[in-house]
Amino acid sequence: MMAEENKTEAEAAPEAAPAAPASEGKKEGRGGNRGNNDGKGRGRGRRNDRKPREEEGDELIEKLVHINRVSKTVKGGKRFGFAALVVVGDGQGRAGFGHGKAREVPEAINKATAAAKKKMIRVPLKEGRTLHHDGNGRFGAGKVTLRSAPAGTGIIAGGPMRAVFESLGVADVVTKSVGTSNPYNMIRATFDALDNQTSPKSVAQRRGKKIADLLGRGSDGASKAEVQADADAVTE
Questions:
Q1: Dihedral sign from CA coordinates of 142, 143, 148, 149
Q2: Which CATH code is given to the segment(s) 61-122?
Q3: Contact in structure between 235 and 129 (CB atoms under 8 Å)
Q4: Domain extents in the chain
Q5: Band (49; pLDDT cuts 50, 70, 90)
Q6: Fewest CB within 10 A of the end CB: N or C in the chain?
Q7: 131-147 burial, b for 16+ CB within 10 Å, e for fewer?
Q8: Which of 28-37, 107-116, 126-135, 216-225 has the lowest mean pLDDT?
Q9: Using the 8-state DSSP alphabet, how is residue 15 labeled?
């Protein structure tokens, strides 16, 4: 009888479900936490939630005009430095220039760009494409002459002056530079001429007159309707 009881107990033992080890429960818990993370914890989900950083001044046009490399001889050798000249504009009548110095080229360009954004000037444009009148500028030994041009002329300028008008938004202009080929002096002389630009609207406000009165004096054989239409077309 004792042998039969032991046999029945041995046969009944395998029918019971084996206990799960404690280590398996911990693994399932970790796996479950990772699956329910929804990108809030560490990992790739957090990087995907970040929004792209918006850069300031995306609409500005930046033109690198000139980079000058200088060296200083010291005991251990030579130290090189860089100076950058940058022109910045919005293409709608605002432009500025700046220069920066640094030991590396990118840092010098960043300094020049920041300086150019701080001292931008507003230049009135005729029909949004050319200057209202001719002008002269001077800085040091450099002299520049700016002339308004009809549609289709293009930018007749070279070197640093072309970068100024492209960033300013001028499509038709004729220029001439004499006296120097130094880009720094040419840029300063060009901005001196642009700073003296005026528009019929500003002149009419200063003199207490209407724009049609100013435009009617210079037109030969033009009717009042044509003069008034030209006056209404003046926005700046």
A1: negative
A2: 3.30.160.20
A3: no
A4: 61-122, 200-233
A5: very low
A6: N
A7: bbeebebebeebbbebb
A8: 28-37
A9: G
